[in-house]
Amino acid sequence: MEWEEWKPFYDEIVREMGFDEKADRKASLILRDILLKSENYTTISELRKLIRERAYVFGAGPSLEESLKTHTFDDGILIAADGATSALLEHNILPHIIVTDLDGRFEDIKKANELGSFVVVHAHGDNIEKLKAYASKLKNVLGTCQTEPLDIIYNFGGFTDGDRGAFLAEALGTREACLVGFDFGEIVGKWSKPHLKEHSPIWESKRKKFYFAQKLLKWLEENGKARITYL
Ligand SMILES: Nc1ncnc2c1ncn2[C@@H]1O[C@H](COP(=O)(O)OP(=O)(O)OP(=O)(O)O)[C@@H](O)[C@H]1O
Ligand SMILES: Nc1nc2c(c(=O)[nH]1)N=C(CO)CN2
Ligand SMILES: [Mg+2]
């Protein structure tokens, strides 16, 4: 998704969610500084080397568990949205790429990163403290933002960790993005937040996030090159 295509979605998201666009822009500059200082950043060309015809993108919906029990996922590149990383690790599956705004279980993200997962870290106005605490502790980080892209900070489009995973798969050039554990609906999967012990009824801000995630995935289905499928 190009910047001009993303901007109208972003404007609506800022309005509806009540985000501070200036803080989002500041977060992007902060992440850039951290990555430049730590020299731990990577580029889209490095990630493109991993690409396969099929990408599996794992969301944190309740159906994820059953899918992990019944499929091997050995015929594609594996992209985990944030909290889904913990579920994959529990099933001894290491994602090639993790897409996160750093509000998942950091110990699991760090463990996967040490074992070889690339981490796509998203900067926004509400995770500046997390960026400062964690971004320099990772290696092989690709930075993303939701404001104008910078030299080493990319914007492929997409809002939540899950739909950004699908937009990343498209940007990497996969032919098919198969979405696993993307249930949306009324129940939030227990991997979505470190404090959740069980799958939980949806709360208001999450409902809005799911609305935009679905709207963006519909756009991708209609306008992207990759075929979007659901498991
Ligand atoms: N029922 C569901 N429960 C949880 N995640 C889901 C569900 N259906 C789809 N997903 C996708 O899986 C992704 C899991 O990411 P996660 O919830 O960890 O982070 P997030 O996008 O940062 O959300 P938040 O900002 O609310 O923490 C979501 O972004 C969403 O796109
Ligand atoms: N400013 C801001 N931006 C975001 C936020 C958020 O909570 N605040 N959450 C996201 C992932 O769901 C993506 N972008
Ligand atoms: Mg997250």
Automatic annotation (TrEMBL):
<keyword id="KW-0547">Nucleotide-binding</keyword>
<keyword id="KW-0808">Transferase</keyword>
<dbReference type="GO" id="GO:0009229">
    <property type="term" value="P:thiamine diphosphate biosynthetic process"/>
</dbReference>
<comment type="similarity">
    <text>Belongs to the archaeal 6-HMPDK family.</text>
</comment>
<dbReference type="GO" id="GO:0003848">
    <property type="term" value="F:2-amino-4-hydroxy-6-hydroxymethyldihydropteridine diphosphokinase activity"/>
</dbReference>
<dbReference type="GO" id="GO:0016301">
    <property type="term" value="F:kinase activity"/>
</dbReference>
<feature type="domain" description="6-hydroxymethylpterin diphosphokinase MptE-like">
    <location>
        <begin position="44"/>
        <end position="186"/>
    </location>
</feature>
<dbReference type="Pfam" id="PF01973">
    <property type="entry name" value="MptE-like"/>
</dbReference>
<keyword id="KW-0067">ATP-binding</keyword>
<comment type="function">
    <text>Catalyzes the transfer of diphosphate from ATP to 6-hydroxymethyl-7,8-dihydropterin (6-HMD), leading to 6-hydroxymethyl-7,8-dihydropterin diphosphate (6-HMDP).</text>
</comment>
<keyword id="KW-0460">Magnesium</keyword>
<keyword id="KW-0418">Kinase</keyword>
<dbReference type="GO" id="GO:0005524">
    <property type="term" value="F:ATP binding"/>
</dbReference>
<dbReference type="GO" id="GO:0004788">
    <property type="term" value="F:thiamine diphosphokinase activity"/>
</dbReference>
<dbReference type="InterPro" id="IPR002826">
    <property type="entry name" value="MptE-like"/>
</dbReference>
<dbReference type="GO" id="GO:0000287">
    <property type="term" value="F:magnesium ion binding"/>
</dbReference>
<dbReference type="InterPro" id="IPR036759">
    <property type="entry name" value="TPK_catalytic_sf"/>
</dbReference>
<dbReference type="InterPro" id="IPR027510">
    <property type="entry name" value="HMPDK_MptE"/>
</dbReference>
<protein>
    <recommendedName>
        <fullName>6-hydroxymethyl-7,8-dihydropterin pyrophosphokinase</fullName>
        <ecNumber>2.7.6.3</ecNumber>
    </recommendedName>
</protein>
